[in-house]
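User: Before I run my own analysis I want an independent prediction to cross-check against. Here's the chain; please return only the C-alpha cells and, at the end, one sentence I can use as a sanity check.
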Amino acid sequence: QVQLLESGGGSVQAGGSLRLSCAASGYTFGSSCMAWFRQAPGKEREVVARIDTFSSATYDTESVKGRFTISRDNAKNALYLQMNSLKPEDTAMYYCAASRRLCRWVENPGDFNYWGQGTQVTVSS
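Assistant: C-alpha cells:
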C-alpha cells in the first residue's frame, strides 16, 4: 500500500524560499504522475505542478511559473517542490499526490489515487 509523507513546510517572509519534500513508500514512478496540490482556507484544492515520473515532463499552473520547480529522485522515491519568491497568496496547505496515469491525462484532485497528509506553508508580508 502506498504512503506519501510531506515535509519542509513552515513560515517565511515574502520573497523567501522553501523546499518541500515528499517521501513515497511502496510506489513505482515508472508509469505514473506525481503532483503538488495546495488548498487555502475557503478555497478548493488546486494543482500546483505535476511531473511524469519516467519522462520528467513537467506541468505547472500559471500563478507559480518561474517561481516553483517540481522535481523528483526516482532512486529515493522522492518528490520535491522548490519554491522561490514566495508571496502571501502562496499560503496554503500543500499536498503531495500520485496518479497511476500520465500527467497529460490528470489534473484534478479526483484523478489522483494517493495523497499525503499535507504540510503547511505560510508566507507573511
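Sanity check: The mean pLDDT is 92.
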